[in-house]
Amino acid sequence: MDTLIESLRGKIAKAPSFAAACEVTVRELRRLVRKFDWVGIYMRQGEELVLAAWDGPEATQHVRIPVGQGICGLAARTGKTVVVADVNADPRYLACFPQTRSEIVVPIYAGDDVIGEIDIDSDKASAFTDEDRQVLESTSALLANLLP
Ligand code: SME
User: Fold this and answer.
1) Whose C-alpha lies nearest to ligand 1, atom 3?
2) pLDDT value at position 95?
C-alpha cells in the first residue's frame, strides 16, 4: 500500500489541475485495488455534495447528495471516515448499485472544513480494512494539499 501512495503522489503532482488530480485518483485507486469496484470524489458546494470524478462500471444516479443524507452525507456532516461493512444492514445507506456490499467514505479537509470526500463501494462484504482507511486518508491529504 505504501507503493500505491507513492505512485499516486507522483501522478497527482503531475496533474495540471485539481479536477485532473481527482480524475487520476479515482482511476488509479480503482485500477490498483481490485476490491475497489466504484470510486468517486464528491466536492462540497454549500449544503450539497456534488460528484466531481468517478471510475467504475456504471454511473451513479446520486450525483448530488445533501449533507446529512446517506453515508456520504454522514461523513461530510461529522468530518469522520465512515466504514460500512454491510450496506444492506445500514438504514442510512443510499443505494446506487445492486451488487454493492460495503462502502467507505473518507473526508477531504481544507483546514477545519470538509470540502469533499472519497467514496468507494465494494462488491465484497466487509471489504475495507484499517490499512485501506489509512491509505485513503493519505490520499485525501494529497488532494487537499493541492488546494490553496
Ligand atoms: N452509497 C452512498 C451514495 C453514493 S453511491 O455509493 C455512489 C451513500 O450512502 O451516501
Assistant:
1) 94
2) 96
Question: pLDDT of 18-69, one tens digit each?
Answer: 999 999 999 999 999 999 999 999 999 999 999 999 999 999 999 999 999 9
Q: Give a three-class secondary structure readout of 65-88.
A: EECCCHHHHHHHHHCCCEEECCHH
Name the maximum alpha-carbon separation found in the chain. Answer: 41
| Domain ranges, ordered by start, for the chain | 2-146
Ligand 1 centre distance from Cα of residue 24 (Å): 20
Residue 25 backbone zone (phi > 0: left; psi -120 to 50: alpha; other: beta): alpha
Work out the number of other CB atoms within 10 angstroms of the CB of residue 114.
Answer: 18
Q: State whether the beta carbon of 29 lies less than 6 angstroms from ligand 1.
A: no
Residue nearest to atom 4 of ligand 1 (CA): 62
- 60 close to ligand 1 (CB < 6 Angstrom): yes
**pLDDT(1) > 80:** no
Q: Which CATH superfamily is domain 2-146 in?
A: GAF domain (3.30.450.40)
pTM of this structure? 0.97
Distance 49 CA to ligand 1 centre (A): 11
